[in-house]
Amino acid sequence: MTNQEKGVKVALISADLGRFRGNPGAGHVQQELPAGWIADSFFLDDESYPARPSLSPRLQAKIPKMLGYEMIPGYDYYIWLDSSFSLADPGAVAWLVQACAGRDMAVFKHPHRGSIREELEYIVEAMSAGDRYLSERYQKEPLREQVDLYLADPAFRDDALYAMGAFVYSKEMLARPEKNVMPLWYYHNARYSIQDQLSFPYLAAGVAGNGFRLATFDAGIFDNRYIAFRAGS
Questions:
Q1: What pLDDT score was predicted for residue 123?
Q2: Is-contact 22 43, C-beta < 8 A?
Q3: Does residue 31 form part of some domain?
Q4: Is residue 152 part of a domain?
Q5: Do the domain assignments include residue 155?
Q6: Which residues contact 108 (CB under 8 A, 6 or more apart)?
Q7: Which of 20, 69, 92, 199 is 20 to 30 A from 106 (CA-CA)?
Q8: What are phi and psi of 98, to 5 degrees?
């Protein structure tokens, strides 16, 4: 794909359910898109996506994060930004999409750790030390059971971890259910834990045998000029 490709439709999706951070779109820099491109922004909050009694706000927010293409069909590329991120450069959408060219999905490498085992131990140690942020989210989640399940799979190599606060996926992945990692990802968030960085490497490795093509950005999630992070609860 080149920046001159015509008729590219991009959906930018974010959500803040439970009023944790607010609408990141207020901080988006106006985008300069290649000729013929269309980018539509969708922000889901408690008013536009009312609470469902059967789901916690955080698990409900995983639906647009992982199944947004079902809610908003018809786009060539889908960009997800956690509500802690905003577009910080006029070329952000084009840069994010370009990383996914010829691939099914583009993600950022984790900036601090390189395996789900390391991520688990970091979370457990931090909660033991009284980390409120992590404890509120994961204290009652079966994190160790989840990771033990993945590590018991002899076909899985635990040598990757990704920062899943921002990513892009394409309609090419959606056209082939056998390599569409997104429904599996949501299932593992519901079945095991909402710590989605633990499940994604395992699931991505599993669908790779079905032709799933994963790209990584050539910059860090906190170390690029295109998206900006704002700290919050």
A1: 98
A2: no
A3: yes
A4: no
A5: no
A6: 162, 163, 165, 166, 167, 216, 217, 219, 220, 221
A7: 20
A8: -60, -35
| Cα–Cα nearest to 63, from 40, 80, 84 | 80
Question: Would you say residue 135 lies in a domain?
Answer: no
3 pLDDT tier (thresholds 50, 70, 90): very low
Question: CA-to-CA distance for 183 and 48, rounded, in angstroms?
Answer: 23
Total domain count for the chain? 1
pTM exceeds cut of 0.85: yes
Mean pLDDT of 152-179: 98
CATH number of the domain residue 69 falls in:
3.90.550.10
Which domain covers residue 70, as residue numbers?
9-114+161-229
Phi, then psi, of 222 in degrees rounded to 5? -105, 5
Query: Which backbone phi and psi does 152 adopt, to 5 degrees?
Result: -75, -10
Classify 43 in phi/psi space as left (phi over 0), alpha (psi -120 to 50) or beta.
beta
SS3 178: helix
Could you tell me if 94 and 34 are in contact, meaning their C-beta atoms sit under 8 angstroms apart? yes
